[in-house]
UniProtKB/TrEMBL annotation, chain A:
CDD domains in alphabetical order: TM_PBP1_LivM_like
Keywords, ordered alphabetically: Cell membrane, Membrane, Transmembrane, Transmembrane helix
One GO MF term attached to the UniProt entry: branched-chain amino acid transmembrane transporter activity
Transmembrane domains' residue ranges: 6-24, 31-53, 73-94, 101-124, 148-167, 201-222, 228-246, 258-276, 282-299
Subcellular location: Cell membrane
Gene Ontology CC terms, in alphabetical order: plasma membrane
Membrane-protein topology: Multi-pass membrane protein
Protein name: Branched-chain amino acid ABC transporter permease
Origin superkingdom: Bacteria
Main localisation: membrane
Disordered: annotated segments: 311-335
UniProtKB/TrEMBL annotation, chain B:
Organism: Sulfobacillus harzensis
Gene3D superfamilies: P-loop containing nucleotide triphosphate hydrolases (3.40.50.300)
Alphabetized InterPro entries for the sequence: AAA+_ATPase, ABC_transporter-like_ATP-bd, ABC_transporter-like_CS, BCAA_Transport_ATP-bd_LivF, P-loop_NTPase
GO molecular function (one): branched-chain amino acid transmembrane transporter activity
Any single GO BP term: L-amino acid transport
Key words of the record: Amino-acid transport, ATP-binding, Nucleotide-binding, Transport
Name of the protein described by the UniProt record: ABC transporter ATP-binding protein
Family: Belongs to the ABC transporter superfamily.
Domain ABC transporter: 14-244
UniProtKB/TrEMBL annotation, chain C:
Transmembrane segments: 12-31, 43-64, 76-94, 122-142, 170-192, 204-231, 238-261
Membrane topology reported for the UniProt record: Multi-pass membrane protein
Protein name: Branched-chain amino acid ABC transporter permease
Gene Ontology terms: biological process: amino acid transport
Classification via InterPro entries: ABC_transp_permease, BCAA_transport_permease
Record's keyword terms, sorted: Amino-acid transport, Cell membrane, Membrane, Transmembrane, Transmembrane helix, Transport
Keyword Membrane: yes
From TrEMBL, chain D:
Organism: Sulfobacillus harzensis
Gene Ontology cellular-component annotations: plasma membrane
Residue intervals of the ABC transporter domain: 7-251
CDD domains from the UniProt entry: ABC_Mj1267_LivG_branched
GO molecular function: ATP binding; ATP hydrolysis activity
Keywords, ordered alphabetically: ATP-binding, Nucleotide-binding, Transport
Record protein name field: ABC transporter ATP-binding protein
PROSITE patterns cross-referenced by the UniProt entry: ABC_TRANSPORTER_1, ABC_TRANSPORTER_2
InterPro entries hit by this protein: AAA+_ATPase (IPR003593), ABC_AA/LPS_Transport (IPR051120), ABC_transporter-like_ATP-bd (IPR003439), ABC_transporter-like_CS (IPR017871), P-loop_NTPase (IPR027417)
């Protein structure tokens, strides 16, 4: 049982990093990036390539290089690659595209990357993907799977907390405020001296780095990495987690991750009638998932923990509970 | 001085009684009453944030009234959707989002005439001759209009539906003095044609000199109402009424500015 | 192409990307299959009824799901999730009802006929005929009727449209019904063409549809038609020169290049006036 | 260019398709003055302001601010130099509170640098406290103090105008371009704001260029008023002079 | 048999770890679960294993390695006394096989992953030959039939693509020439362009392996372009009745007589146990899961082998019985049995057995995969498979390596 619990904890941490990164783009900035799983994929692959040995006929995999680097270099490499590609994609899509067009552009970039990595075997073994990926610091743990899981959980936990702290700082700082202003009204923000392109690009690069980190961790944890692990549909749970938890709020992101990935994603299997209905499990999981999202949007459109009103000390006498101006919500993403 | 007719149903009269409207749980308009009838211009003035626009939205069915009645032509309007209210013959020019940005001037007018197809083109031509600026720019997207042109278009769009009553939320905002004269003149003509006009304005002086009756709305309630001429005589007092009930406090404005 | 036009209509008019669209495309094939195989109906009644059913379903989806949400101020991204959730539910319902295997609808006359040097089957000829006819009808609808203008007004600013006297709800329902019908036709055509389908058949197409719609300019039916041609040609051309496996990549590359050059798509969209540049 | 000129526009031309919205407009504004810009609807006033602030590209001509050419700068670069504008249509940040709108305004905040935002909170916290006091003082003087925690999108039309002005002041500009700041603002408040503007001008030397159709207001605050007709600046002078100018009366005052 | 002995105590838990959702759901739902359930039913009718009832549970391996690892961990948590594992598909094998091995759970898998060809996971057994050898066998068969130029039309799934390198290498080394090699994206509406390319290259044979649905479209396109006359050779992936059905539907009957060939990893038709399996299969699942095919047979055998190994070891403890797996299948001194009841009876009597169930004798090599070899079949006009020749394992391996 403890193994499974640890396994869930690890998944929670990894998914949390992913959801946090999505929150930076979607929640804070309203960038409709539909291609963010590409960064996850790339992070996973580079993390794997950097830690695996050189390609040999014995390994029977086809990939183009292997560096056998020690921890934490593969991780850092993965993050850097994510950021680099994030920068490129950012320049491509953020220069003069908004709203739906931006969303589709990112989707196109994602699909190109996906089809390419899936179809061209010699890069990262195509559809079969990479396997036998070394796990970081596995040498210092005991031989058993069990004790290593503890170690990995601690590692993932530390990184998740670090990411959380990072995102908190980004959002609750003048930088985050400027980013929000860009989201709300671009030309208004520009007239106040904010550079929308620069702000968007920075957020995108930072988020890409975080997404890539989630990819590296996931690949190293499951010791294998193949296209289905970062396919298009993986974006939906991440976005659902944000809806349920609350966009623009990191605590919301954490709660949403827990609800969507752990409660819904894993909990369903424990309902007794599921036991011998393997194909119903998935269907029901998605139905609950869909219903939950719909219900949340209906009853709590701002999520469990909505974006916080910025508050400053003193002068709280006039506080009034009001809802955000609905007709304006997401106008910014509409371009 | 104008004699006010009784509440009893009179053809073409719009009577709003004790209207309460707000956003979510916050009450903004807390029981305001206004009446307007054909051949009349009725004005509403009041400080910023008094609830004037909210009042109009309540009448139009954009916000659901929590209390009060809206009766037009002897039949209640509350509970109807905005498009139903429009098709009863009530036109509306909103304060802010007032034209279809991405459609051309001509298309805006066509849509305005959506519910009154008969004679639509003729009315369009009339509007073009009344406001030649719009004719010049008929194939231009509305968002490329200047602020003043935009307001003209908003007014014209509402007129295209052949309304019997028309609610205007600050028609003069952004208009040059010249354009304002044209608009006031046009509104006067509409009144003479038998329309009922209900106008929210900040340019109190201009409104008072043309309106038959004016309501002063402060903090979501009727503060004063009188004929335009009477209020015009007493305009100095108006400022005090405004400030009395509003949240803004001008007295310490100037003093507090240390920049 | 049909599918893209229907999709662009929904997207353009109601500002909603309907991810469930492709699952409706799948559903129509199953409905048709049921009518012809279990109820032994003839080809035409079965096809027409299943297409109409999809139209009605699409309308119901708008009325019962999309509109209530839009009224609550939920837009774009969140709607994407809602429709995605619905799509998955539809997909799994199909799986539960009809089973996880695949089916085939066969139309007679699979033998190719030579038409100006191109080998086409009878089924493909029917498809081309139906597509052309519905495009003409659609064109007339948008340009000759008030409904067309009303749709555009609603798509630009629903609340203003309503205070201009347009029955926004009815207009939206109409738009969804029409696009549902187009979706149904597209789904049937697809099923005839593919020779086999299962509960996931439609999902493969979402990308192609999105690419076509965006390339054409969101909400622009003519754009969608043109873009479908372009994407199709580029894809075929790429398939011949390179590996057909990568024709998606090449189409998407074309999309990116075009968008970099014209960020609003190739064609003027339903929602922009003739003077409209970029804004 | 003489030393006291802070903003200089020379032969500015802006065209949209076939429309010449601004047609060889020239303008020069002295430091520390309040200048008005009036003209019929569609004369090109807003477009000229857009051209100055970088929101619209010039087809011809140049703009210089503080002795430096700013013709091709992006809007945020223009703003950073201290030339700040407001919009004719409301441009608040709707889902941010009124106070947050204000706090966003100051230029070059230490915490807007990504790295110090994340890694050295101490550096910008002090600054935040200072801005907070400033923001609250300004809000109070615009009668918006009660609304500081309200979402800006929930303000009334007039309140949005006020916020726009307050936010622009919050940037500590060298010069302000105001596009119809008083449209929709109630009469008594206009008078108070006029005093406010005059006082700012006198006490801090802030330069203003104001577009307004409310001539009473213009008369009260402006040292000089430019008249724009058909895309070019026809003439300038005090309000009193202009009222006597036949061309102006014909074109604008009717 | 001794059906009277009531099963007692805690059940023997056998898990089926397969995709039950997503595009590959049919593998779990049709190929893996029904045959294991059938085996369990027959075993339980016989009184269970050592008196314990067999309980079949399922685990959805999901759509990717991440899902699979999590599902496996959950499985270990929920069933600490898991006795055996059947399933594990090639898409997730590389990630989960090590986990099951660490947890010491004997696995019987059909995954053909090259990566596991030289594995030393002591709990991991395969009931099918590696993909690489299968690719070589396809090449060998083609050359034996005299086809010197070939087109390759494989879908882009991992399990088919992993045949390709070996296929190309072996084919070209022995004088063949691959003129077109295309990966097909699954479930497209048309493969006309691909088929046109093939037609233009005039190959003598087409190597093709896809999922059934893709095959339906592919063959329909081939018919439209008039190249059904070119023989096709497929492998394990096409070794399912659903595939034949799909192709038959698409081209209108089994008119591909003599042209539709397939290299089978399993020697189903030769195996003495197949008729019994088929008969039992038809009793329970005549319609729902289609006719019995070799893949289902192999999975059914996998479950029986685990049970027989337990019987032989007199223990349901994985660490004990795992060593008996070889002793019940590939045992020259054992008596041949064709179903569980026979085997259990003999084992109880203290005799040795050699189980030859629905698919041929499984002779495991040092890497725990069967070396029996391959058979070439053709599909005749009435949809029956007709054996053509046998390709011994050693000969294929030799063909591959030299
Ligand atoms: N993007 C554009 N495309 C076409 N014409 C435009 C565009 N922007 C502005 N115009 C035209 O340029 C002219 C000047 O507009 P501008 O907004 O500068 O006027 P303005 O002087 O500010 O008027 P107002 O007092 O009404 O605000 C108008 O006639 C307008 O229609
Ligand atoms: N969507 C909303 N949600 C919450 N409060 C709102 C909303 N819109 C307006 N308010 C509040 O309601 C009050 C009245 O607004 P309204 O727009 O009716 O004022 P108004 O009288 O038209 O003012 P103005 O003259 O400035 O246009 C204001 O205090 C405003 O802050
Ligand atoms: Mg108002
Ligand atoms: Mg203007």
């Amino acid at each position: 049982m403890i193994t499974y619990a640890l396994n869930l904890v690890i998944y929670f941490f990894i998914d949390l990093i992913l959801v946090l990164s999505v929150n930076l783009q979607l929640g804070l900035l309203g960038i409709a990036n539909l291609g963010f799983m590409l960064f996850m994929g790339l992070g996973g692959y580079l993390g794997a390539l950097l830690s695996m040995g050189p390609n040999s006929s014995v390994a029977l995999q086809h990939y183009f290089f292997g560096a056998t680097l020690p921890f934490p270099l593969p991780m850092i490499g993965g993050i850097l690659l994510g950021m680099l590609v994030g920068l490129g994609v950012g320049y491509l899509v953020l220069t003069n595209m908004r709203g739906h067009y931006l969303a589709i552009m990112t989707l196109a970039v994602f699909m190109i990357g996906y089809t390419f990595l899936q179809g061209v075997v010699p890069i990262v073994n195509g559809e079969n993907g990479l396997y036998n990926i070394p796990q970081p610091l596995s040498a210092i743990a005991g031989a058993g799977h069990f004790s290593y899981q503890w170690e990995f959980a601690v590692l993932a936990g530390l990184l998740a907390i670090l990411s959380f702290w990072f995102c908190q700082r980004v959002i609750h700082s003048p930088f985050g405020r400027a980013a929000k202003a860009v989201r709300e009204n671009e030309s208004g923000a520009e007239a106040l001296g904010k550079n929308p392109f620069r702000i968007r690009l920075i957020v995108m690069v930072a988020a890409a780095g975080l997404t890539a980190l989630a990819g590296v961790l996931m690949a190293q944890y499951v010791t294998a990495w193949s296209p289905p692990a970062w396919s298009l549909t993986e974006i939906f749970p991440a976005m659902a987690a944000l809806i349920v938890g609350g966009r623009g709020n990191n605590w919301g992101a954490a709660l949403g991750t827990f609800v969507i990935y752990i409660l819904v994603g894993q909990g369903i299997g424990f309902i007794p009638i599921m036991a011998n209905n393997p194909n119903a499990e998935y269907a029901i999981q998605w139905t609950i998932f869909g219903a939950l999202v719909v219900a949340f949007l209906w009853f709590r459109p701002a999520g469990l923990i909505p974006e916080r009103k910025a508050r400053w000390p003193e002068r709280t006498s006039h506080r009034q509970a009001t809802s955000p101006p609905m007709s304006h919500v997401e106008e910014a993403t509409h371009g | 001085m104008l004699k006010r007719t009784s509440l009893e149903s009179q053809a073409g009269r719009l009577a709003v009684k004790n209207l309460e409207v707000g956003y979510g749980s916050i009450p903004i308009v807390r029981g305001a009453s206004v009446e307007v009838e054909p051949n009349r211009i009725v004005g509403i003035i009041g400080p910023n944030g008094a609830g004037k626009s909210t009042f109009l939205k309540g009448v139009m069915g954009i916000l659901p009234p929590r209390a009060g009645t809206v009766v037009y032509d002897g039949r209640p309007l509350q509970g109807l959707r905005p498009d139903q209210i429009v098709s009863r013959g009530i036109g509306y020019v909103p304060q802010l989002r007032d034209v279809f940005d991405n459609l051309t001037v001509a298309e805006n007018l066509d849509i305005g005439g959506h519910i009154a197809r008969a004679g639509r083109n003729q009315r369009k031509d009339e509007i073009y001759s009344q406001f030649p600026v719009l004719a010049e720019r008929r194939h231009q997207s509305a968002h490329t209009l200047s602020g003043g042109q935009r307001r003209l278009l908003a007014l014209a769009r509402a007129l295209m539906s052949k309304p019997r009553v028309i609610l205007l939320d600050e028609p003069s905002a952004g208009l040059s003095p010249q354009a304002m004269d044209t608009v006031w003149e046009h509104l006067g003509k509409l009144k003479d044609q038998g329309l009922a006009l209900l106008i929210v304005e900040q340019k109190a002086r201009a409104l008072l000199s043309i309106a038959d009756w004016v309501y002063v709305l402060v903090d979501g309630r009727n503060a004063v109402d009188a004929s335009g001429a009477v209020l015009l005589d007493d305009i100095a007092n108006l400022g005090k009424i405004f400030m009395g009930g509003s949240e803004s406090n001008t007295d310490n404005h100037v003093n507090s500015v240390i920049h | 192409m049909l599918s893209a036009v229907g999709f662009t209509l929904q997207w353009g008019v109601s500002n909603v990307i309907n991810w469930a669209y492709v699952d409706f495309m799948t559903l129509v094939a199953f409905l048709d299959y049921t009518f012809t195989h279990y109820l032994h109906w003839n080809f035409w009644p079965a096809a027409i009824l299943s297409v109409l059913l999809i139209g009605v379903l699409s309308l119901a989806m708008n009325q019962l799901l999309v509109q209530p949400f839009l009224k609550r101020g939920i837009k774009f991204f969140n709607m994407l999730i809602v429709t995605f959730g619905l799509g998955t539910i539809v997909q799994y319902l199909i799986e539960v009802i009809w089973g996880p295997t695949f089916f085939s609808i066969t139309v007679g006359g699979q033998q190719p006929i030579h038409v100006v040097g191109v080998k086409l089957t009878v089924a493909q000829l029917i498809i081309i005929g139906v597509a052309a006819a519905s495009m003409v009808g659609f064109h007339l609808l948008l340009t000759r009727t008030d409904l067309g203008k009303a749709m555009r007004a609603v798509s630009v600013d629903p609340s203003l449209a309503q205070v201009s006297g347009i029955r926004t709800n009815a207009v939206l329902n109409m738009a969804w019904f029409l696009s549902g019908v187009l979706c149904g036709m597209a789904g049937l055509v697809l099923a005839f063409n593919t020779a086999s389908f299962d509960s996931t058949t439609g999902t493969v197409y979402i990308l192609q549809i999105l690419a076509v719609v965006v390339l054409g300019g969101i909400g622009s039916p003519y754009g969608a038609m043109g873009a479908a041609l372009i994407i199709g040609l580029v894809g075929e051309w790429a398939a011949l020169l390179i590996n057909p496996y990568f024709n998606v990549v090449v189409s998407l590359l074309a999309l990116i290049v075009v968008l970099l050059w014209r960020p609003q798509g190739l064609f003027r969209s339903l929602t922009s006036g003739s003077g409209g540049g970029t804004a | 260019m003489d030393n006291d000129t802070i903003l200089e526009c020379h032969d500015v031309v802006c065209t949209f398709g076939g429309v010449r919205a601004v047609n060889e407009a020239s303008l020069s504004i002295e430091r520390g003055t309040i200048t008005g810009l009036i003209g019929p609807n569609g004369a090109g006033k807003s477009t000229l302001v857009n051209a100055i602030s970088g929101h619209v590209r010039l087809d011809h001509g140049y703009v210089a601010f503080d002795g430096q050419p700013i013709t091709r700068l992006r809007p945020h670069q223009v703003a950073e130099r201290g030339l700040v504008r407001t919009f004719q249509l409301a441009s608040e940040f709707p889902n941010m509170t009124v106070l947050e709108n204000m706090m966003t305004a100051p230029h070059r905040q230490a915490g807007e640098n990504f790295f110090s935002a994340v890694f050295s909170k101490g550096r910008w916290q002090r600054e935040e406290e200072r801005h907070l006091i400033e923001a609250r003082t300004l809000l109070a003087s615009f009668g918006l103090q009660a609304k500081e925690e309200e979402y800006a999108g929930n303000l009334s039309g007039g309140q949005k105008r006020l916020l726009e002005l307050a936010r622009a002041l919050m940037t500590r500009p060298t010069m302000l371009l105001l596009d119809e700041p008083m449209a929709g603002v109630s009469g008594p408040l206009i008078d108070a704001l006029a005093d406010h503007i005059l006082r700012l001008n006198r006490e801090t030397g802030l330069t203003f260029l104001i577009i307004e159709h409310d001539l009473g207001f213009m008369e009260k605050v402006c040292d000089r008023v430019n008249v724009m007709v058909n895309g070019s600046v026809l003439t300038h002078g005090t309000m009193k002079e202009l009222r006597e100018d036949e061309r102006v009366v014909e074109a604008y005052l009717s | 048999g001794s059906g009277s002995a009531a099963a007692s105590g805690s059940p023997v838990v056998i898990d089926v770890f397969s995709p039950f959702s997503g595009p590959n759901a049919f593998i779990g739902n049709q190929y893996n679960l029904p045959p294991v359930s059938l085996a369990a039913k027959l075993i339980n009718q016989d009184g269970g294993v050592l008196g314990h009832k067999v309980q079949v549970i399922t685990t959805d391996s999901g759509q990717d390695v991440g899902d699979a690892v999590s599902a496996a961990n959950k499985l270990f948590a929920q069933y600490p006394n898991l006795n055996g594992e059947v399933g594990i598909t090639s898409d997730v094998a590389s990630a989960v096989v090590p986990l099951f091995n660490t947890h010491k759970i004997p696995m019987m898998s059909l995954a053909g992953n090259e990566a596991l060809d030289k594995s030393h996971y002591t709990y991991f057994y395969r009931v099918a030959s590696p993909d690489s050898l299968q690719g070589a066998a396809m090449a060998q068969a083609a050359l034996k039939l005299g086809y010197k130029t070939a087109a390759i039309l494989m879908d882009n799934s991992g399990s088919t693509q992993s045949n390709v390198p070996a296929l190309v290498k072996a084919y070209e080394r022995h004088g063949g020439k691959v003129v077109v090699n295309l990966a097909l994206a699954s479930d497209q509406s048309s493969y006309r362009t691909e088929v046109e390319k093939v037609a233009a290259a005039h190959p003598q044979v087409i190597f093709t392996e896809t999922d059934p649905q893709t095959a339906a479209t592919l063959f329909a396109n081939m018919k439209q372009l008039g190249i059904l006359g070119i023989p096709t050779i497929g492998g394990q992936e096409v070794d399912v009745p659903a595939y034949f059905q799909a192709v038959a539907n698409a081209v209108g009957g089994y008119s591909v007589e003599d042209k539709f060939l397939r290299v089978s990893v399993f020697t189903a038709s030769k195996t003495p146990g197949f008729p019994y399996f088929q008969q039992e299969w038809n009793k329970i699942e005549p319609k729902k899961d289609g006719p019995a095919g070799p893949i289902q047979g192999a999975t059914y055998d996998a479950a029986n082998i685990l049970a027989l190994a337990m019987d032989a070891a007199h223990s349901t403890n994985p660490t004990v019985y795992v060593k008996y797996i070889r002793k019940v299948t590939d045992n020259p001194s054992g008596q041949v049995v064709t179903n569980y009841a026979q085997g259990a009876k003999l084992l109880k009597e203290g005799k040795q057995i050699s189980y030859q169930g629905a698919v041929g004798p499984l002779k495991f090599n040092q890497y725990n995969w069967p070396t029996e070899g391959f058979d070439l079949f053709k599909l005749n006009a009435s949809g029956k498979l007709v054996p053509m020749f046998h390709q011994p394992g050693a000969s294929v391996a030799n063909f591959y390596l030299h």
